[in-house]
Write a structure and sequence with these properties.
2 domains; Delta-60 repeat domain-containing protein; alpha+beta; transmembrane helix; transmembrane; 4-stranded antiparallel beta sheet; about 325 residues; 3 helices
């Protein structure tokens, strides 16, 4: 049974570049390569604005960690509303297949032993090979994950799944716990964000070169699957940003201008405007605008109804003339 999504707003979430995140206290948490101490190893450290390391973080200022064997490095670093650190990436599983990896650290910089297996969740959502690219943690310890899904033919598709607070895939969401983009063309995830109202937005670039388009897939409370909310094409994509503005998600170019929505979404906007007009009170309609037709009445029937009153005066005149002629003939016969 699909999960009806309940989204949680996180006003304290702060994220910067892929390997850095800023705390509410003005410190910076960052990931550093650790090729000297262990293979495929990384260091997590917290620094003050002046660049000095915080000795109260981790073990004397740093925490060493590994995503797993044959990994491509961390994809992103996020902080949640209570200061926990989350790292997303991928590694090979015991069967030699790729697994999505999500790691959680305490606000003090240590691996969180209460999460998954000693702070590390390695999953194959819906039994598919996957790489975690980004995540949006919730206060209850669960997290939404955006990543790449690799099918049997080796093709990569954008995917979305949810991990429960124990680090396991929530199989109630979408199809066995995984939503996979089925559109035409390759996609690249450019943004994964959460709005003040709790809705999620996944920003994708589809296609290459001049034919590329930008898409916004939105997931709101009560939905069990993300919906395509917007598509834009043309120029301005190189430095496009996904922002929440005026109560909706929008793509902005490098100058902060809204990128124009593609033509196929225009009929949807027109239909919405027509529906709003139909529901408006009569006083809000233009004086020269006829009232909307009743549901189920065609335009032709409406036009016929508008012209139906012209024949009543003529019919009454004909009836009167016929009655006058009949009465006159009757009087002539009596005289005869």
């Amino acid at each position: 049974m699909p999960l009806a999504v309940t989204l949680l707003c996180q006003p304290g979430l702060a994220a910067a570049a892929a390997w850095t995140a800023s705390t509410a206290q003005g410190q910076t948490v960052r990931i550093m390569q650790d090729s000297f101490r262990m293979r495929d190893g990384y260091l997590l450290e917290r620094i003050y604005p002046d660049g000095s390391i915080d000795p109260a973080f981790g073990q004397q200022g740093v925490t060493a960690f590994r995503l797993g064997p044959d990994n491509e490095g961390p994809a992103t670093l996020r902080l949640d509303g209570i200061g926990r650190l989350w790292v997303a990436g991928a590694a090979l599983g015991p069967d030699g297949r790729g697994q999505a990896v999500v790691m959680r650290f305490t606000p003090q910089g240590l691996l969180d032993p209460t999460y998954a297996k000693q702070g590390r969740s390695a999953t194959a959502p819906a039994a598919m090979q996957a790489r975690a690219l980004d995540l949006l943690p919730a206060p209850d310890g669960s997290t939404w994950v955006n990543g790449l899904i690799i099918n049997a033919e080796g093709q990569e598709r954008s995917g979305l799944w949810r991990l429960n607070s124990d680090g396991q895939v929530d199989t109630r969401f979408a199809d066995g716990g995984l939503w996979v983009d089925q559109g035409v063309g390759e996609t690249e995830a450019l943004a994964f964000e959460q709005a003040p109202d709790g809705s999620l937005a996944l920003g994708l670039r589809r296609g290459q070169g001049d034919a590329a388009t930008l898409e916004i897939w939105s997931l709101t409370a009560g939905q069990s699957l993300p919906q395509l909310a917007q598509r834009v094409g043309g120029g301005g994509q190189a430095a496009a940003r996904l922002v929440w503005r005026e109560g909706r998600w929008q793509w902005l170019d490098a100058k902060g201008q809204v990128l124009p929505i593609s033509a196929e979404f225009a009929p949807l906007r027109s239909a919405s405007a027509s529906a709003a007009d139909a529901q408006a009170p009569a006083s809000a309609l233009a004086p020269d605008k006829p009232p909307p037709l009743a549901e189920g009445v065609s335009a032709a029937a409406g036009a016929a109804a508008d012209d139906s009153g012209w024949w009543w005066p003529g019919a009454a005149l004909l009836v009167g003339l016929a009655f006058f002629w009949f009465a006159r003939r009757r009087r002539q016969r009596r005289r005869a």
